[in-house]
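quick one before i forget lol
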Amino acid sequence: METFKKEERLCNKIAIESLFKKGKTSFYYPFSIKWLLNQSISKSPAQILIVVSKRNFKKAVDRNRIKRLIREAYRKNKHILYQMLKAKNINVSFAFIYTEKEILNYKSIEDKIILTLQRLIKEINKSD
């Protein structure tokens, strides 16, 4: 199912704070990933937060464009992650932090998202 619903977004302030305090960090160019396995049962096996630095992109239009590209690439490829999470019956929340100083095109962002999701699966399997 290629949708991106409200329950798939990480909005809860407490959950975001715990993610950044307790979460593990990995870097896969152009993303820094913060992720945390959740004990709480939510409607969605994964909750995502997309962060684009105001320091690197002064204009909100640019930040929003990058977030849109990342969101779309994730929406189309999240099934890679969801299959493993549903099989193991675990929940994860993570943040994609965009670290590049230029706007990449959609194809390169999508390729990097796919690679990042595959590596995230390996990281989650290691931590079990």
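fyi The first helix runs from residue 13 to 22.
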